[in-house]
Amino acid sequence: MTSLRQRQKDAIRQMLNLNQPFSKQATSEPSWKILVYDRTGQDIISPLISVKELREQGVTLFVQLHSDRDPIPEVPVVYFCSPTEENLGRIKQDFQRGIYDVYHLNFISPISRQKLEDLGSASIEANCVANIHKIYDQYVNFLSLEDDMFVLRHQNSDALSYYAINKGDIKDTEMDEIMNNIVDSLFSVFVTAGTVPIIRSPKGNAAELVARKLDKKLRENLFDARNNLFSADTQAGNFNFHRPLLIILDRNVDMATPLHHTWTYQALAHDLLNLALNRVVIEDSTPKGGARAKHKACELDSKDKFWTSHKGSPFPNVAEAIQEELEQYRSSEEEVKKLKTSMGIDNESELAVALVTDNTAKITSAVQSLPQLLEKKRLIDMHTSIATAILNSIKARKLDTFFELEEKIMSKTQQLEKPLLDIISDPDAGDLEDKLRLFIIYYICSAHLSDTDLKKFEYALGEAGCDLKPLVYIKRWKSFTKMASGAALNQYEGAGTKTVNMFSKLMSQGSNFVMEGVKNLVVKRHNLPVTKIVDNLMDFKSSQEMDEYHYLDPKQLKLAEMPKSRSPFQDAIVFVVGGGNYIEYQNLVDYAKAKTTAGNLRRITYGASTLNNAKQFLQQLSLLGQEL
Predict the structure, then answer these.
(1) Most CB atoms closer than 10 Å: which of 78, 85, 111, 163?
(2) CB-CB contact of 620 with 163 (8 Å)
């Protein structure tokens, strides 16, 4: 089955092919063109298509819509942008100036009738109607970061953030606009996927608003004979098992996980190195001669086999795997060197020439393997740099201790008050945010924390210099949720770690990673709150909480009812309103793997309005706390 990411990539490639279907057999030269995009368009293309692939598609130049651009005659220009007033104003300016001869306009989400008419009037005024070849609504208003993960925004993501949705003075019109933006993007996701989902959501929060609006939008489109975007899916009939389940959840369902310290490679890169759009920027290794540190951008995508295999692995395993890769590379390099020496390539003798003829096959294979070897070396060096930067942070902030303690808190294995106070008061343990994250998780997960104890902790945090505004908001949040009644306090059961003996492969001399003082923690496989809900809803497990969830089917004319005979869903899309994170994503990936057996396939795609690491989430909580 084609992934959402691949379908979006195909749609963009077809757009770059001037909206002609893209055939793999075509060997002819691509037609040359210019790509003009806005920031949203750039964010969508950046994790999907590399510069090399753009060149192969015939894109000779790609430029920002709002930059100074020179006239380029006779070359087709592909515009890829949102239909905002600002963008349309700039396109009208381009018409006036006549800077291009052939326009192909592609809008990321549909352009309204009124704006289209305005654009038409502008083209008549500028006398360039004949130059506009095509105008397309593309329905690709989301960012595919992985085959099984998407977000709605990267730049300007504050507009859809947890803070934007939960701030105290939000007007109904503002809330409505946020919900409509989320629904428009989710609608794009399903147009691109080519399927109509069955929707489940809890009652009484932002997730319910999104679910109801999306149901209405899908329903209107399905029963609109002229503009039905799902005609292929409709013909396939109403078979329940062919359709995905869309589970829309509110970030408030689990506030501890976004603040949790983590132990897997991708989530650590996000938490410590601000992984964004599949790229991290790290400081280059120590600069020479007192020069300023250089920054190096590292692309982490599906073409990188090491990343694909290890992004969900615990960090110690990643360090060991890098070490193994390095040793393999060194032995391959030795083989090439031996071949050169044994053949006397180092000295130009007649003997060498004679040997060369005998060893042609060996040389050919060595030469052919050289590009792969060099690429392997580049990837090993890149992952060594990233892992070293992560390791330095783990050591400097004692993050293994924080991670271990939080896992214990979430699994409620023992009384942790003393170690908690000790770590908050220890000036060498973590930075101020680490301490605050640890305590908020403890506060959320503890059923009975007396006012005296709370004050004791608040005093210790204040003395350490922590900003307590996020805690002010979390206290208010906890009093509002069911957690106060203890209904959801067993959410995190089964978490925990065990410490394995020291790092066997990394203690050898010559290892790039000096792991001294870092614990080799193995995480127990457990389901986070979001994963538990997904498990219940995909398998139709009955519980009081799950029976409270809406069941919406846009294909049914009247209000949908739960079917009597229910076979489990194979495909689910889990969408979190108010921000997601890589910890939840990884937990769902692990769950899907564990549930997939020979006869039972589980495919889960994780989506969120935005992607936040703990630092960004704390900042939003701080703003909310300030308002109280």
Answers:
(1) 78
(2) yes
